[in-house]
Amino acid sequence: MSTVTNPSLYSIRDVLLLSQLLHINGIKGPQELDSASNDSINTILTEWKQHKTVQLENKVIKVNTKAQLKELYHKLLKKYQVESTEELANFVYFARIEELESDISQYKEEFREVLNRS
After folding, report:
1. How far is 87 from 93, CA to CA, in rounded Å?
2. Domain of life here (predicted)?
């Protein structure tokens, strides 16, 4: 398995951003990705790599080619057991919400502990 296309290397936030970029660029499923122009793929990859959320994490996304993006996309569909970009986006959107809710709960608990120590 190519390291670049290993879905486990990408956070829920990474996958959500990628799925949103695919969707707004008309890539609704595997067929649209297959027929997408190289310019369209390059735009998606550039926007993904240069997005503020990726930059804030100091993360380097190494997907550089249409073939790599297709391989990653197919693996993401399989990993999340979905069949389209919209289903992928919806799945990871709700997973991201759960992550954020968990973080908020943890921060609340830490805050309570700090208050109780005072």
Report:
1. 10
2. Eukaryota
Q: In residues, how long is the chain?
A: 118
Does the pLDDT value for residue 1 go beyond 60?
no
Its sign, for the CA torsion 49, 54, 56, 59, is negative
pLDDT recorded at residue 75: 98
pTM, full prediction = 0.88
> What is the C-alpha to C-alpha distance for residues 4 and 58, in angstroms, rounded to an integer?
16
Q: What is the DSSP letter of 7?
A: G
41-80 burial, b at 16+ Cβ within 10 Å, e below that, comes to beebbebbeebeebeeeeeebebeebebbbbbbebbbeeb
Query: Which structure tokens are listed for 90?
Result: 């919806």
**DSSP track, 86-97:** HHHHHHHHHHHH
Instruction: Indicate the domain borders of the chain.
Output: 3-117
Using CA atoms, how far apart are residues 118 and 109, in angstroms rounded to an integer? 15
**Closest among 19, 10, 3, 5 to 82, alpha carbons compared:** 19
